[in-house]
Amino acid sequence: MSRLVRGVVARGKGAPVSVETIVVPDPGPGEARVKVQACGVCHTDLHYREGGINDEFPFLLGHEAAGVVESVGEGVSGLAPGDYVVLAWRAPCGECRSCLRGRPWYCFDSRNAVQPMTLEDGTPLSPALGIGAFAEMTLVAAGQCVKIDPAARPEAAGLIGCGVMAGFGAAANTGNVQRGDSVAVIGCGGVGNAAIAAAHLAGARKVIAVDIDDRKLEWAKGFGATDTVNAGSTDPVEAIKALTEGNGADLVVEAVGRPETYEQAFYARDLAGTVVLVGVPTPDLKIELPLIEVFGRGGSLKSSWYGDCLPTRDFPMLIDLYLRGRLPLDKFVSETIKLDEVEAAFTKMHHGEVLRSVVVL
Ligand code: APR
Ligand code: ZN
Ligand code: ZN
């Protein structure tokens, strides 16, 4: 039987979101219906609402979620009602060229639910990042459900599903951070602070946090930053060099998505250092890099997509680190809110007042 539940819907470009009754069908073949317990408010939800991703309104927002499997469809194995899961936006197919070449994060055919969730009048909803979890229940592909240790509280666990994985993976997977590295992270929101935590855990010698907001820099210390730089008052490239004996950092993670911060990241790298772009640029942004600087200083410029993660490998690992006190996920949770407070949470996010607001159901 279809379920009628409450969910947060964005009906049109720029319009405030509203809590509406949505219809969640019974899971079909390969699908699972999940009772959502907590879901973080991420920038991408706001981008959907602003029409910055596509115009397939109405959207069912929310995509950083933990919950419990309520029922599964035909042919689903290895997942059963009662399983505690974090939802992934990509369930790699395992068969396409990217998957076969060991880069499943670029899967061409990642799996999502086939049946649509709808408004009560039958209008199909587009679920944010194939999830749609600002709702009491959601429908996903079974492969999007990653089982985790039930000891992890949902408010913290759900964050693994997007922002924390993106930042942690940018440093750990894409940047391959090593013990003894000096690391600089530009932009210390949820994503940047997760990169800081990864660098700290890997045994980086210096973890330099760069932001324009002193509150963010203060929070960054709680994730393992050894030094902080306010880029509003100090040239961050000079500051990073000064903190690394004039050399620059072995790894620079850019977690803002602006041309000026990407340029700073480029110039702040050491000889043969690595620069990872994880901040999402808008399609029109460009930078100019002198080739001689690339040629003469070597290194690599990379981008990181969903932290280049394999959810079934990385989610349980991050949860283990959390449960053993080594990854302070709770510090990302600035406040817990109800479904009807998502719009207010967007405003707080916009003003930099929170790392994450988390909807608890
Ligand atoms: N220099 C340094 N830091 C900056 C600058 C700048 N010029 N401009 C903004 N920032 C800081 C903000 O103060 C904020 O702390 O960058 C941080 C960005 O963090 P959030 O806005 O909280 O965003 P977050 O969720 O961490 O995502 C960062 O990654 O996934 C993408 O779309 C996301 O592009 C965004 C980025
Ligand atoms: Zn694939
Ligand atoms: Zn997100």
TrEMBL record:
Its EC number is 1.1.1.306. Keywords: Metal-binding, NAD, Oxidoreductase, Zinc. The keyword Cytoplasm does not apply. GO terms for cellular component: cytosol. Its cofactor is Zn(2+). SUPFAM superfamilies: GroES-like, NAD(P)-binding Rossmann-fold domains. One of its GO terms (biological process) is formaldehyde catabolic process. Residues 14-361 form the Enoyl reductase (ER) domain. It is an enzyme of class 1 (oxidoreductase). GO terms for molecular function: mycothiol-dependent formaldehyde dehydrogenase activity; S-(hydroxymethyl)glutathione dehydrogenase [NAD(P)+] activity; zinc ion binding. Gene3D superfamilies: Medium-chain alcohol dehydrogenases, catalytic domain (3.90.180.10), NAD(P)-binding Rossmann-like Domain (3.40.50.720). CDD domains: Zn_ADH_class_III (cd08279). Coiled coil: none annotated. PROSITE patterns: ADH_ZINC (PS00059). Belongs to the zinc-containing alcohol dehydrogenase family. PANTHER family: ALCOHOL DEHYDROGENASE, ALCOHOL DEHYDROGENASE CLASS-3. This is S-(Hydroxymethyl)mycothiol dehydrogenase. It comes from Yinghuangia soli.
